Every structure is written in C-alpha cells, then in structure tokens.
C-alpha cells in the first residue's frame, strides 16, 4: 500500500482494507520498544509507572489512528450513499417519464 492513495485503498465496500490497516497498526504497535523490565522493581516504582505511561500513550495513539480511519470510512460511505440516492432518484424520474 505504500504510495497508494488511502481513500483508494478503502474504496472497496467489503472493509478488508480497513482491517488490513488495523493489522498493520497493531503490528507496528507491538514492535515499538518498551521499558526495560529485566531488573526486578518494587510495586509502584518509577520504572513501572513510566512503562505504564508509555503503554497508555501507545494505546491512545493507536485508538486515535483507528478513530481517524473509521471517520474517513464513514465519510466515504456517506458520500457513496448520497450518490446512490441521487442515482436512484434519477432512475425513478426516468422511469416515470417513460410511462407517460
């Protein structure tokens, strides 16, 4: 998908592209370095708190990316719906004109 227009990649109505995007984001999320947990630390230590903060930040970023992708898809589907409604109206008008 590199270099591909993101709206084009989501143009299929079946949703596979959005699932692919989610899988890619999830893989990127998993491969980001985490805090070093090799040394035992006490409950509530600064290292543990920092690791939790880093994880929360990653989760928030992932949620934002998914939210943005869903908003884009929703907008795209809304436009498709409008076009289909306009086309249907034109067909109804055309069929009613042919009956007269």
What can you tell me about this protein's structure?
- This protein is mainly α and 100 residues long.
- It has one domain.
- It is 73% helix and 0% strand.
- The chain has helices at 6-9, 16-30, 46-99.
- The N and C termini lie far apart (51 Å).
- 0% of the residues are buried.
- Mean pLDDT is 77; it is low at 1-15.
Domains counted in the coordinates: how many?
1
Total count of strands: 0
Strand residue percentage: under 5%
The shape, in one word, is: rod-shaped
> Whole-Å distance between the termini?
51 Å
Main sheet: strands, sense, barrel: none
Assembly level: single chain
Rounded to the nearest angstrom, the radius of gyration is: 23 Å
Mean pLDDT: 77
Keywords: Coiled coil
Biased composition (Basic and acidic residues): 27-39
Protein name: HAP1 N-terminal domain-containing protein
Region (Disordered): 1-43
